[in-house]
Amino acid sequence: MVVFRGGLYKVWQKFNGLGIGKPKLSIKRMQKRWGSLSGKGIVTLNADLIRAPKECIDYVVTHELCHLKYYDHSPEFYKLLDSVIPGWEKIKHKLELSMV
Fold first, then answer.
1. What is the average pLDDT across 52-75?
2. Considering the entire predicted model, what is its pTM?
3. What distance in Å separates the CA atoms of residue 26 and residue 44, rounded to the nearest whole number?
4. Could you tell me where the DSSP H helices lie in the chain?
5. Which of 23, 52, 63, 100 has its CA 20 to 30 A from that of 32?
6. What are the beta bridge partners of residue 43?
7. Are 85 and 59 in contact (CB under 8 A)?
């Protein structure tokens, strides 16, 4: 849990100026997702992420925080994701390979 909270705090620094509230964090096992954002602004991370490299955890947190601004996967969402974590595609691929 400390790893996830630290990751959220670190990544949140990049979102601080966007005028969106800092979300609460929840950890639970999920079958098909690495993370999600609820309509109430709660970021839920898959407990299995604890086995992933740190940069992969940060990628998932970043992805979910981008949903605070753009709830869908629109071009604007990906533009924000790319501006916060350039090269995220490689990190996502690393996550998928490391968690098989």
1. 94
2. 0.92
3. 4
4. 2-12, 54-69, 75-84, 88-98
5. 23
6. 25, 37
7. yes
